[in-house]
Amino acid sequence: MLEKEQILLIVYFTVIILFFIIFGIVFFIAFQKRKNKLLLKSFKDQQRFEDALFKSKIEIQEQTLKNVSWELHDNIGQLLSTAVMQINMLNTNLDPELANSIQDVRSLVGDSLQEIRNLSKTLNNEVIQNIGLKESIQVELTRFEKLNFLKTKFSVTGDKTDLHPKDEIIVYRIIQEFFSNTIKYSQASSLEIKIEYQIKNLIISIKDDGIGFSKKNAKAGSGLLNMASRSDLINAKFEYETAPGEGVSLRLTYPFKSNNEDIKNNELG
Amino acid sequence: MFFQIVINIFEIIALVSGTMYVMKFKDEVLSRYFVYFLLFTVFVEIVFGWMPTAIYYLDSLKGLEHYFLLNNNNWIYNIYDTISFVFFLFLFTSLFNSKKVRKIGFLFTILFLMFSIFNLVTSSEFFNAIVSLNFIVGSLLLLLYVIYFFFQMLFGDQILDFYKTLPFYIGIGVVIYHLSSTPIFIYSKYFSETKSPDFTKVYEIIITTANIFVYTCYTLGFILCSRKNKSY
Q: Membrane-spanning residues where (chain B) (predicted)?
């Protein structure tokens, strides 16, 4: 027979060992959980940091474009205006033969002035925000038509819904990037743009009939990446379709913001 | 006798540093209760701890011998241990953040109090040994509470400067003291030079070491925590 003390001692140590094993397991699990939480948090922080970085990059870009726009408008625009005035003054006391060619020069300078003012408008985000997305695109397209780059077709369907001003400018920059790619590389002769306002989404489709490119050979620096990351920033879906000789078509689906995303946006901005 | 003096010295050091700490941080109610408890401990240890020796040497106190049963002051310590367990359980319960857990903690503390009173009354060992069942249940319950408290600290921001929180030191000290001394107290019946001299020696060494450890822990806690600027 064991003594009462020995039984108590055995029970005591068994319970203690059991306790410590349970605590060890709980500690291990909890530690693991906490570690995972920390890793996840640091990953999210990293992502937020990158988002913020990209936003500030875009803001700087916008500021630079705005400055260029002011310079064009105020400086070069003023110079050209003065040139037009000088030519007008010259025009009064010249013989008709010379006057004709002077007249040509005058209209050339006048066109340049108009051109520079239009260009200045498309660069300045405040102007874009003031006149709206549709009109800004129209200005850009008119400019292309005038310069004989392309034939353009532009249509808007659905009821106009206001976008978040910050997003509007990003959408516009994506479209502008596409235009500049079309003009620089595609050798296209016509460009078709459709804006569809739906209840939940804004869908923008752009199509050119240029030489296109093979998706495999597309270089990262070609602006596609830029457009894609910009659309990520506004939670828009960015899709494009192309093949050599078949032109490029782009489809941008922008969801109108819910309140939730607005808050997220404010946090980042 | 030598061991008892050493223990008393360490207790008094802890009490003094605790008093200084409480005077510096007047708004810490729990720390103040803890220092009251230390004062109570010192009182019990000095008055009742030395009583058998005093009776043995002083003839005028011989009349008290009847109450202290020769060399045996175990019944005082049985009562003291119960009070001590209940105090520490209450102390740690009131440190729990979750309301639900706090309620459960109080419930178990009260259950433990009733259980140990029942044990003390019914036990045949009340006068000649430490009632070990109380000690075992109390130690395990205390271990549970302190570990829960540590977990709570681990998952809060407190972990960042745990060395500045007094309950951390109290918890470490109290748990290690009780865990290491419980096996000894289970056999406290044999604490007597005539029954088992070897066991008596081991008993004295272990209890003294455990006491030195626990009171050093408290003193260290008081000193380190009094360097902080804010109360916990």
A: 6-23, 35-55, 75-92, 104-121, 127-154, 166-186, 206-225
For B146, which residue in chain A has the nearest alpha carbon?
Answer: A23
* Closest-CA residue to B173 (of B202, B143, B206): B143
Within 8 A of B183 by CB-CB distance, chain A residues are 9, 12-13
Nearest residue of chain B to residue A9 (CA atoms): B183
Q: Is residue B70 scored above 90 in pLDDT?
A: no
Q: Which residue has the tokens 């997305």?
A: A133
- Side-chain half-sphere of B42: how many Cα atoms within 13 Å? 19
Q: Which among B117, B210, B207, B205 has a CA at the least distance from the CA of B172?
A: B210
Taking alpha carbons only, the member of B169, B176, B165 closest to residue B217 is B169
Q: Are B91 and B33 in contact (CB under 8 A)?
A: yes
User: Encoding tokens for residue A36?
Assistant: 């995972």
Model confidence over A230-247: pLDDT tens digits?
888 888 888 888 888 888
Which residue out of A4, A9, A11, A12 would a mutagenesis test of the B interface target, given it has the greatest number of B Cβ atoms within 10 Å? A12
Tens-digit pLDDT profile for residues A21-62:
998 998 899 888 888 999 999 999 999 999 899 889 888 988
Determine whether the interchain pair B186/A12 forms a contact, defined as Cβ–Cβ distance below 8 Å: yes
Q: Which two tokens stand for residue A14?
A: 């068994």
